[in-house]
Amino acid sequence: MKYASWTNGLDESFLGEILKTANHKDTISFAGGLPAQELFPAKDLKECFDRVFEEDGSIALQYAEALGYSPLREWVSKQFFSSGKARKLDEIIITTGSQQGLSLVAQTFIDPGDIVLVESPTYLGALQAFQGYRPRVVAIPCDKNGIIPHELEKILRKCNPKFLYVIPNYQNPTGKIMSLERRRELVEIARKFDLLILEDNPYGELRYEGEALPNIMDMYDKVIYLGSFSKVLSPGLRVGFLIAEEEIVRYIERAKEGVDLFSNNLTQHAVYKYIVGKKFKEHILELRRVYSERKDIMIQALKKYVDEEVQVDTPKGGLFIWAKIQKMGDSCQFLKYSQEEKVIFVPGTFFYPDRRISNEMRINFSCSSPEIIEEGVRRLARAVHRI
Ligand SMILES: Cc1ncc(COP(=O)(O)O)c(C=O)c1O
After folding, report:
1. What topology does CATH give the domain 5-41+281-385?
2. Are 80 and 87 in contact (CB under 8 A)?
3. Distance 124 CA to ligand 1 centre (A)
4. 299-318 per-position pLDDT tens digit
């Protein structure tokens, strides 16, 4: 087949193979990034869909504008303030999940060979969204507070990137939050170099301790912000949103028309009905409560069974724990042991653009019950003790 040249470097999907073993019925998977499906507000969402059919069925089933359902955009505009002001409606476009936002931004900004900066490590799906446009991805070293400012500055002195992609809240894969100080330093550097920032925030509401920190978008104008209902409602809905200055949104709108004309109209109506209802806030509180408990159970189990062998960072929010195996340099090798013990995770290497060898692993705690978490960690411990 005469495939486009960007497909040349595509690796055999080792990750796909790992995730397939998640379906083996006796394997415990800490590999996915899934929200807990028993917490989806299915009954309430069904009621919302029923009401859409009853109240606005003929409109919701029709072709619609690429920017998305206006009441939903209005809701977003009121929730997300920049410098104390509600955003204008023309600065908001609904996307098919924030994954589509990543892809549309890539399509709109990246020419082959352009430089795109990312955190190191970063979200694998973002690297996949960018790769079709063939950028040169440069990873900026991070520490426990996020991007290291002088490292960013060093790179910006040498190159002129199209944008910097960051996940400031409870990052995927590390679970880290970028400190306020770091956000300020980042913005200062961005101003100095007139850098466009792509801020991806699917996990911000899943906060288990501490106060919410301001979005980068609240601190700096040249930001494209991505939000999503996947983690606070359900990923199957595929509803997200992008906020940026009007001109950028106009370009994104053109790109989106070419991709899918508009995001599922029916679902946008139903999501709107749900989020303006009384239960949305309560639902988020419930998610925080359950996930925080699962996170604590996993941290305690890791401390109990592999305290010496696995170094763990405790996240303050999100869905992931980032852990380092002390006795082995390559967590892909360790995965072989853990697969034999019937527990899986995602090895750190997948989150680095250069696929460096890493002793890190991303472990998900949100979609397993406390009993499964405990048993999964016991199996991980058995694997660790076989090294
Ligand atoms: C950092 C990050 N961005 C974007 C996405 C995509 O989310 P959505 O379901 O909104 O497309 C994910 C999904 O896990 C993610 O972790």
Report:
1. Aspartate Aminotransferase, domain 1 (3.90.1150)
2. yes
3. 10
4. 999 999 999 999 998 999 99
